[in-house]
Amino acid sequence: MRTKWYFWPAALLSSALALGLVEGAPAQTLERNALTAEGIRPRLSVAWQLGISSSLGPLVSDTMLVMRQIGAVGVGLSADYSFTRVLGVEAALAWTPSTVAMTDWEQTVDRTAAVWLGSLRARILAGASPNYALVLTPGVGMVDRRGAAWRGMQGMRRAALVFGAGLSFLGQGPFSYGIEVQDYLSRAAYRDSIGTAFSTRLHNDLLVTFSVRYAVIVR
User: Fold this and answer.
1) Is the dihedral of CA 187, 192, 194, 197 positive or negative?
2) 2 is a domain residue
C-alpha cells in the first residue's frame, strides 16, 4: 500500500504529542523550556545533515513513458537565526544522487540523476521540555532535477511549498541533534527535447534528515 505524502509529518507530530512535548503552553512557558545546553541559547546556528529522500509517485506518467525518481541517501547544510526563543528563520540546501527509473513500451532502465532541494523556512517552537523541542518549519523552496535522465527536458527547476516538522535533542555544550521530515510540494510540468508536454501533476519530494547543529553565536 502506497504511503500518503502526509503520513510522516503526521506520525512525527503524533509522537511528539505522546511524549508530552505539545501541551498548549503559552509563549512564556515555551521560552522557559526552550532547548538549551548548560544555559547556552543559540542565536545563530549551522547544521550538517544526512538524510534519505523519497519521491512519492511518478514524475512523468503518460501512455508511452513513465519516469519515477528512486529514493536515495543525501547530504545537506543549513543555517538558522533566532529572533526570539520561539521564532526564527532557516535556509537549507540538500543534494541527493537519486536515479530515475524510465519505463517505455519495451523495458525499464535506470538513468543517473540527482536532485537539489533548497528552502527558506520559518522555525517555530511548538513545544519544549528541558531535553526535547518540537519545531515546525513551513516555508518556500525549489526542486532542481539534474543528470542524464533529464537531459534535453524543460521545466526541471520548480518552485515548491515546504512543510516540515522536527525534534531536537539536548547535546553537550553548543551542540544539539535533530530529526526532521520535510515535504517539498511542487508542480511537475515537463516538456521533452522536441517540445512534447507531459501531463501536469502535483508532486511530493520527502526528505528525512538527521542533523548535528552547532551554535555559532549565543545570546
Assistant:
1) negative
2) no
